[in-house]
Amino acid sequence: MGATTVVAIIPLFLLHRLTTHATPIASVNVHNFEDDWDYKIQPHSEPLIGEVTHNHILPPEIKVDVPDTKFVQSSSSVPERVAKKLGDAVRSRVSCSVCRLGVGLLQREVRKNTSFENIRTQFVGLCVAFKVESESVCTGVFDVFGPDVLPALKAVRIGADEVCALCLGEVCGDVKNPLHQWEVQFPEVPKPVTREPDLPKPGLPTFKVLHLSDTHYDPDYVVGSAANCEEPLCCRSTSTPPLTADVVPAGKWGSYEKCDSPKVLLDSMLKSIARDHPDIDYILWTGDLPPHDIWNQSKSSNLDIIQETVEQMFEVFPNTPIFPALGNHESIPAGSFAPPWVHDPDHSVSWLYTKVADHWRKWLPASVGNTVLHGGFYSILLRPGFRIISLNTNYCHTLSWWLVVNSTDPAKELQWLIHELQEAENKGEKVHIIGHIPPGASDCMKVWSRNFNAIVQRYENTIQGQFYGHTHADEFEVFYEMEAKEPNRAVGVAYLGPSVTTYENHNPAYRIYYVDGDHANSTREVLDHETWTIDLEEANKSEDDPKWYRLYSAKNSYQMESLRPKSWAKLVDDLINNADLFELFYKYYYRDSPVRPTCDAKCKLQILCDLKSARSHERHKLCHDLELAFSS
Ligand SMILES: [Zn+2]
Ligand SMILES: [Zn+2]
């Protein structure tokens, strides 16, 4: 459950007429979408870290016992679970026609000045009557989301058809409006010829990189509370026990149900990382720090979580550079990132950027303040010839309501990215990109994703790695050359790091990457990656600290020649054709969770298509062959 809840409830307005009253929704002056920020800034040019002297041997020895491999439990104690993606679950509950009718009605009411209070009363009444959520959740959702969503809908210049196509994606058609059909501009520099360098020889220096994502720390987690509650987030003293089932008590180290991370889980993980990996060179931290109780969060509760988590990271890794990216859950309401042309302080997201700019100063140079305060993104030179660019991919979020007003390159982020990449190309630098929402996610807007893909294709020689989170699964996305002579040529790969939170059905996990290090002709490519996890079911039987262990290494488990894009594309083909290999991949997808849902043909098709879809809402084009293979 996420911000999409609001969309799911909107259609209920269909059944009630709203009455006109005082205090109409205020109009927000959007300043004609003016954003006078000059993106042509000098890239950061002093290497952030000194020469790395760690010598990481590949493959590294395993220092922790690996538990026996388990298979999916089929016992009656484990209810049959349905595989679903975060967001997709709610999305599938709302059909396009229902969305169009609901949004149309809501737009009309807002424009004819129906009061906020009136809409609130009607909303909560219908939300409860239709058993969408409990009264406290319905009220909370409206109070947190309403003040942002309703003024945005009032400012929207497109009709309900196009609003639904933007929010729900390709299944609801296309958006023709020029405010949502934009193209980034490339400099007139021809793309260099693509030549595949030799694979780095074994024994050359490497970087060892930790990737943490989606911690979703829940300070209100209570051991023994209902893990299978009625609300969208459970394991809290306020959780309502299930009406029709026995209570599943929240475990000490976490729960497979709709629960986020207790403090002890994060403590145990960070402590074991510090112990098992004292040789980490730097950390990628791809966001989603607050828990999933989006209906009762506030700016201050989110800022408290961010501060506590940042301080904890600094305490455990005092001497390791950390490169963060912003998650959709960092904002209030969750997922809302108004572009800079929304100057109104009630809706601008600068309250968040100001705070994180402050926190991130622990690891980042002062010069990134310009871009962080403007749009929550930055670029730094890590070592000579090696750059890290952290994007705020929440600017492609389909449920970031101000983007429905005008989605044109929010905060000029992609135009800035092109400027950075062109400068990097000119200087022969290689670049790693990090962000939270992966560009192929179904909740990343099609127009943003299309532009981003054009950038990846143009700068394929420069971009040597991409790292995201958000889906909570252990997976990846392949970028293919589109509208080209060779439509199946892979030009990039995005790694989607597994979540620390179990939400939902996952074992908690983190990633380690080995990256080609400092030497002449370094490609800066990812040489291998590992996923580390715990057996949560086993851990909850004991008070002792859980055992974090290496679940798999990509290169070994999937027998990959390299971790170059073409090898990932080959793996996708192998996964399509080899059912046993897919089983293995699916086991890792949930980090060997014993409660992972059974994956039927539909689930398999969805997962495989996700792997082929680094470009969002092009599934029919990208997965046509797959659809044919699965329908035969
Ligand atoms: Zn998340
Ligand atoms: Zn997320």
TrEMBL record:
Its main location: secreted. Its cofactor is Zn(2+). GO terms for cellular component: extracellular space; lysosome; membrane. The keyword Transcription does not apply. Residues 92-176 form the Saposin B-type domain. Disulfide bonds join C96-C172, C99-C164, C127-C138, C229-C234, C235-C259, C396-C444, C599-C603, C609-C623. Gene3D superfamilies: 3.60.21.10. It holds the Pfam family Metallophos. InterPro entries: ASM_C (IPR045473), ASMase/PPN1_MPP (IPR041805), Calcineurin-like_PHP (IPR004843), Metallo-depent_PP-like (IPR029052), Saposin-like (IPR011001), SaposinB_dom (IPR008139), Sphingomy_PDE (IPR011160). The keyword Iron does not apply. One of its GO terms (molecular function) is hydrolase activity, acting on glycosyl bonds. It comes from the Eukaryota. Keywords: Disulfide bond, Glycoprotein, Glycosidase, Hydrolase, Metal-binding, Secreted, Signal, Zinc. Its EC number is 3.1.4.12. Belongs to the acid sphingomyelinase family. This is Sphingomyelin phosphodiesterase. It comes from Zophobas morio. The lineage of its organism: Eukaryota, Metazoa, Ecdysozoa, Arthropoda, Hexapoda.
